[in-house]
Amino acid sequence: MSISEPFIRRPVGTSLLAIGLFLLGIVAYKLLPVAPIPRVDFPMIQVSASLPGADPATVASSLAAPLEKRLGQIAGVSEMTSISTLGGASVTIQFNLDRKVDGAARDVAAAISAAASDLPINLPSPPTYRKVNPADAPIMILAMTSDTLKPTDVYEAADTIIAQRLSQVEGVSQAVISGADKSAVRVQVNPAALASTGMGLEDVRTYLSQVNVDLPKGSIDGERDSYTLESNDQLLDAGDYQSLILTTKSNVPIKLSSLGKVFEGVENERVGGWAGTNRAVLVIVFKQPDANVIETVDRIKAVLPELERWIPPSVKIRLISDRTTTIRASVEEVQFSLLLSIALVVMVIFLFLRRFWPTFIASITVPLALAGTFGFMYLFGYSLDNLSLMAITISVGFVVDDAIVVIENVFRFIEQGDRTMVAALKGARQIGFTVVSMSLSLVAVFIPLLFMGGLIGRLFHEF
């Protein structure tokens, strides 16, 4: 008994099975994520730390070097690079491809904790780390501009409304704000005036950090009553800082305003964004690893009109970068090539067979094979990308070849006088092993791709 005999003897069951496979394939096709290239988890982690006011040489010696020393002791590190800039350092660690990125992240966190004793004590915050994937580029960049509001006000709207709402959109992993910074009170001290008081810049910094706190004040307990003291010591604007008394000289109080300028500004004045020639606050959107990039962008565009009603009318939101433009074009081009190849195959079959039913039977094997392929792609976590669609396009010819060989052999028995059922059984039994052998030999050509190592091997794994 051949492999195909049970299906030939049960045409109704076979037809229902084919219809079910086709419907499952359609559902799986709708659920498959769309991406330009296959998703590959690169075991790479980036550690960032900041030391405001430090020059690159100081950052390299006091910040980057201790981190590199500890991070270099992690097992499986293949490459480590660091960049020291004004006020901050970034260390990128690349691990061997067989290393799990989650396990590497735990080791990096432990190394950062171990390096804490070697780092400067005046770090504003501990070093942070995040997993980096070179393939995870932003899917969308929005520019928020206003002709009347200050960049800090636009930043406030972007940070409190736009970024939070976009992060809730299905498929979005995070929305990063760039091009501006949070509002802050900046103090510019005159060194000569400060020196006359006998104080230094560090004294001013320490004093400002101590007065701008909101700590519990305690309580007053009596015999029958207890009172909790409430007072807010936080300073919220530049006017509150100007009246601060730093010290006294000859019994004369020295106010902060007499030693320099106190004004409203931003935390980092060296951050700026432009959309064309206009100042803008940029909202950079990233997608989740398994999200469909096209559907995610469509969802974001759908909520933008709603978000525009939540922000001041003078703030305009403009789309300046949409990664799906090229992705849609490339995927649509490959899909068109796939449909064109199917049409050409059907035309060639009809040209040589010159019979409708053999052509029809050979043609329906293509959508059924594609439906089954989409189902397995969904089960294995693959995506619709240029490489997977290219592989499907190539395999269309393999499927049709097998169908043509079997159909021709069956028709040969029909022409010899056998009934249709008998001819189908004879034809399939006679050539079934040959067809399977042909298919396996064609598949064997691509087996080396499964064992290809390195980044190229991971990219071609879906192919």
From TrEMBL:
Listed transmembrane segments: 12-32, 334-353, 360-381, 387-411, 431-456
UniProt keyword annotations, A-Z: Membrane, Transmembrane, Transmembrane helix
GO molecular function terms noted in the UniProt entry: xenobiotic transmembrane transporter activity
Pfam families documented for this protein: ACR_tran
InterPro entries cross-referenced by the UniProt entry: AcrB_DN_DC_subdom (IPR027463), Acrflvin-R (IPR001036)
GO CC aspect terms: plasma membrane
Domain of life according to the entry: Bacteria
UniProt-recorded name of the protein: Cation/multidrug efflux pump
Organism field: Pedosphaera parvula (strain Ellin514)
